[in-house]
Give the backbone structure.
Amino acid sequence: MTCNHPDNPAVTSAAKWLADQNPRPKPIIPELRKRFDISALEACEAAALAEKYRMLRRAFG
């Protein structure tokens, strides 16, 4: 199940923040929920989007 949130800037902000973290916080979902005040589903979407951002950075510099 995918829950795209193209109109939710909090999900995009959370994804960008997570993509920049090295090392990543553990556990990820509770940290995103607390830091960005988003639902668990939105946090999962942000985590998936952050992985896409990391992959694109590796591929395209």
